[in-house]
Amino acid sequence: MKPHWLLLTAGMLAQSVSLTAQTAPEAFFKQKPGTDYYLANYSEYEAYLKKLAGESDRMKLVDMGKTAEGRTQWMAIVSSPANLGKLDHYRDIAQKLARAKGVDEKEAQRLSAEGKAIVWIDAGMHATETVTAQGQIQVLHRMLTQSDPETMRMLDDCIILFAQDNPDGMELVANWYMRHADPKAREFATLPVLYQKYIGHDNNRDSYMMAMPETENVNRQLFRTWYPQIIYNQHQTGPEGMVVFVPPFRDPFNFNYDPIVMSQLNEVGFSMHSRLIAEGKAGSGTRSAARYSTWHNGMERSVAYFHNSIGLLTEIIGSPTPAKIPLVPGTQLPRGDEMMPIAPRDWHLQDSLDYQWTLNRAVIDYASRNRERLLFNVWRMGMNSIEKGSRDSWTVTPAKVDRLVNAAPLKVEGKDEYNRPMASGPKKIDPKLYGMLMQPPAERDPRAYVIPADQPDLPTAVTFLNALIKNGVDVERADAPFTAGGKSYAAGSYIVRTAQAYRPHILDMFEPQDHPHDTDYPGGPPKAPYDITGYTLAYQMGVRFDRILDPMPEGFATLSEPLAPPPGRIEGQGDAGWIVSHESNNGFILTNRLLKAGIRPAWVRQATSVNGKAMQPGAIWIPASAQAKSIVAKATSELGIVAQAVAAKPQGEMIALKPMRIGLVDRYGGLITAGWTRWLLERFEFPFEQVFPQRLDAGNLEKDYDVLLFADDALPPEGAWGSDRPSRQPELNDTPTQYRAMLGKVTDAKTVPAIAAFARNGGSVVAIGSSARFVDLFSTPLKPALTREVDGAAKALDIKNFYIPGAILRARVDNRQPLAFGLPDQVDVFFNQAQSFTPVAGGAGYKSISWFDGRDLLRSGWAVGQEKLGGTIAVADIDVGKGKLFVMAPEVAHRAQAYGTFKFLFNALLYGPSAKP
After folding, report:
1. Which of 857, 865, 750 has the alpha carbon at shortest distance from 803?
2. For 54-69, what is the mean pLDDT?
3. Is residue 759 within 8 Å of 883, Cβ to Cβ?
4. Fewer CB within a 10 Å sphere, N or C end of the chain?
5. Cα 865–Cα 902–Cα 492 angle in degrees, nearest 5
6. Inter-axis angle of helices 42-55 and 167-177, to 10 degrees?
7. Could you report the per-residue pLDDT of 516-539, keeping only the tens digit for each?
8. Distance of alpha carbon 28 from alpha carbon 53, whole angstroms
9. Could you tell me the pTM of the whole model?
C-alpha cells in the first residue's frame, strides 16, 4: 500500500526551500499543552499537525487509515529536508535489510552505510495516559524548530515516525476532562465508555491478531512499509515512589526471537537512564521496579521483538491534575534497578513532559550514533532466521532444560586450574547428553507449516493466514497438488516457510509457548506473568496444520496481500433446499441473514450424509425459496460456504431456529470483555443491544430479550470466583443525559432475582468465565470445582496448588449436543484463572458439553496443578425452570482470537430461544 501523503498548497513540499515551523503550541491551542488542568483533544491535535506540515520542510504527514469511529489516524514523518526528498529510497533500504532475503553480507554493509535509522515513537494508545499525547505535541514542535548540532545530527541520521495510536480515545478523554468549567472539578476517572470503541486497554493486546483497524494501521507501517529498527511505545503510569519505568525488562523473555534484539534493547534502555540521570532527572527504575517482561507477543512493543526490532516501553507518572510523588521507603536506597531515587515532591504535567522529551531524545540519539549498526543488525537477525529455517535447528525451552536437570550428574574428580575440587560448583552432566536430550531429530523446528485446503473451516484458516500476512509474513499457496513430509496435499493448500526474516513470529503463532516455572525462590509461589502465558494463535483458532521438518518443494505462489475466503459453491441439483455444514463459523453469518429475512433454517440433530458427503450433527437445513436462494448464493460467494442442494428435506429430528433478541450485559465505563464480545457479535451479524444494570433490575426481562449474555466479569466475581474491580461512576447530576441509563451495578440482592425469574420464565442466560457464578446464585446442580474452605466460606485454591494465568488447555467435547454442534470431539480452550464445575450430590437437570479429561491438559503456556481439572466440567447446559443457563469456564471468545471455540457461544445464542417450550 502506497503512503497517502497530505497534499499541501502551492507545491510547498515540492520546493526545496528551507522553512521553519513558526507556530508554537501555545499560539495554536487554547492553552499550551502541558499546562495544569488542560488537555488538547484529537481534533485540535490533527489541525495542528496539518498546520506544522504546511510550515516546515522537516515534516510530512501520512494518512495511516481510519479508526473504529472513522477518524483519520495520522503519522508525522520528521527528518532533514534532504532525507524527506528521498523517503522512498530510504524506505526501500530499510525493507531490503529487514527482509534480508537475497541480500548478502557485503550488500548489507553497503546498504547500512547508506541508509537512515528508522525510529517509531507513538503516543496515546491508552488514552487516559494523557502524558504521551500531550507531550508529543511539544516534542514535534521542538524537533521541527531547534537547530542545535545534536538536533541537526539526529535529523540527518534518522527518519522519525511520530504516530498517534488511538485518536478516538484522545478525543473522548480530553473532551470528558474539559467538560467542567471549574479546573478543580476536571477528571477522567469516570469515563462513560471504553477509550477505544470496543476494547479499551486491550488495544495493546491486539498486535498479532489485528482485529481493530487502529492496530492494523500501525502494523502496516511497522512491518510492511517502514520496518523501523526501534519501536518506542509510551505509556503510564510509573511505579509508586518513582517517576518512570524504563527498560531493560525482567525475565522471562520469549525463546523464539533473536538474542541480538534483547542485547540492543538493554543498550537503548540504559542509554535512556543515563540521559535522565545526566540531566538530573531522578526516579527512573528498571527490571525489578515493575513486572513488565518480554514474553507475550500481543503488545506493540513486544510484537517488535518477533520482527527483529527493538521494542521499548516506558511507563511514566503524570496527569493534567497536579499530584504528589509519595514517599515509599523501599524506593529511597540507590540500587542497580533504581540508580537515582527521587524524594517526595509536587508533580505537574509539564514535569512529565520534560522527562518525555529527554527519553525521546535519548532514543533518537542512540539511533543516530548507532545508525549503521542498527541497520546491519536488522539484516543480521533476518539472515539468522533465514539460515535457521533452511537447516535443522532446535529451540531451547524449559521442558528441554528440565531433561538436563533430571539427568544423572557427571562424576568429576581432581582439581581445576585454581586448585578447587572439580566436583564442587553447579551440577554437571555428561556433555554427550546434550544432543540426545536437547536435539532429538523429531523435535527439530519446522522448515515450514502446511495448512491443508481441506480444513473443516477454511474461512477461519484464511483469517489466521491474514493475521500472518498483515504482520509481514510471507504466505504461499499451491496451485497444484504436491507432496511434503511424505504426505500429499491438494491444490489450494497454504505454505508458511520458516526460512524468512520474521521466523520468530511464525514460530510463536504455530508452536506452543513453554513458559518457565517462575518463582522468586525454589518452592515459592508463582510470580504473576505480565498478561498471559499461552496464546498460540493456530491453536486458539482451531486451524489444522502439519509441521514439515525437511526441505519443502519450491515454486508456489507468494501472497503479498490479505486474502478473501476462497469462493464457496453450491453442489448438487435438488430444489427442495440446501444443507450447510455446521463446521464453518461463517455459517452463523448465513444463519443470521436468513433469520433477519424471515426465513427459518433448522439444525439437523443427527449426523447425516448429503450428496456423498458426511456431515456431523447440527447441519443447517435451509428450505427453498427465491429469497433464500439469493442469500445462499451470496454467502457461497462472499463467505466461502459450501451449500448442498437437495431434492428433499432431511429426515429425522430438527431444531427449528427462531429470531433472537440478545441483551449483551455491560456497565458504565465499559467492560473490556463485553467490548470484545460486541465486536464479535457485529462481525458475525448477530442482532443484539447492550443492557445495563438499571434495566436488569427493573425485571420483566422476557419482554425485551430472549438471551442475556454475560461476558467474563459482567457478573461481579466474589469468593471462589475472584474479586470485583468496579468502575468508578459519577454522581447522577454530573452525568450527561445520554449516559445516565448506564449507571448502576449488577448486584446479588436486586439484579440476580430478576435474571433468575427471566430464566425460569423461558429465557436463556449465557455466562462466561467468572460470570458462571450463576451456578451458585441459581442453586443449580453444579458448583465450582476448584475451591477450598476458609473460615466457612468457599475460596479459590491457593496459587501454589493451582495457577493457570492465561493458557491453552485441551478439553473433550460431546458434539452431539446442540451447544457443541460443529466442534471436533477435542478442542483447545483458553483458560485464565477460572473455575470449572462439578456436580453437587444428587445433581440432575444438566448436560456436560465439554470437560477436562486426564492430568496432562496443558497445550501452551504455564499451568500449576493442571491435574486438578481432570474430570471437571468446562461447559454445561443447565435447565432453569422453562429456560436455560449455559456456563462456560474457558474464555470461549477470548480477545476475538478463539475462533476454535466461538461455536460454544454462537450455538448458545441460537439454541436457547429455539429450545424454549
Report:
1. 865
2. 97
3. yes
4. C
5. 110
6. 120
7. 999 999 999 999 999 999 999 999
8. 14
9. 0.96
Compute CA 732 distance to the chain's CA centroid, rounded to the nearest angstrom: 35
Q: In this structure, what are the phi and psi dihedrals at residue 192, rounded to the nearest 5 degrees?
A: -80, -25
CB atoms closer than 10 angstroms to residue 187 = 17
Cα atoms found within 13 Å of the Cα of residue 723, Cβ hemisphere only: 1
List all residues 6 or more positions away from 304 whose beta carbon is below 8 Å from its beta carbon.
Answer: 222, 231, 310, 311
> Mind giving me the DSSP string for 821-832?
TT--SEEEEEE-
Q: For residues 298 and 209, is the Cβ–Cβ distance under 8 A?
A: yes
Residues in contact with 847: Cβ distance below 8 Å, sequence separation at least 6, in sequence order: 814, 817, 819, 876, 877, 878
747: its cell numbers: 448486584
- Grid cell 497534499 is found at 7
Provide the sign of the torsion angle of the four alpha carbons 729, 734, 737, 738, taken in this order: negative
Q: Is 715 exposed, middle or buried (CB count within 10 Å of its CB: 0-12, 13-18, 19+)?
A: buried
The three three-digit cell numbers of residue 113, written as one number: 552505510
Residues 804, 798: Cα–Cα separation, whole Å: 12
Distance CA 264, CA 119 (A): 14
pLDDT, one tens digit per residue, over 472-498 is 999 999 999 999 999 999 999 999 999
3-state secondary structure of 247: coil
d(CA 83, CA 95): 16
The DSSP code for 865 is S
10 Å CB burial of residue 488 (0-12, 13-18, 19+) is exposed
Would you say 566 and 642 are in contact if contact means Cβ atoms under 8 Å apart? no
Grid look-up 463459523 returns: 585
Cβ atoms of 120 and 228 closer than 8 Å: yes
Residue 408: half-sphere exposure toward Cβ, Cα within 13 Å: 4
DSSP codes of every residue in 34-78: TSTT----HHHHHHHHHHHHHH-TTEEEEEEEE-TTS-EEEEEEE
SS3 label, residue 715: coil
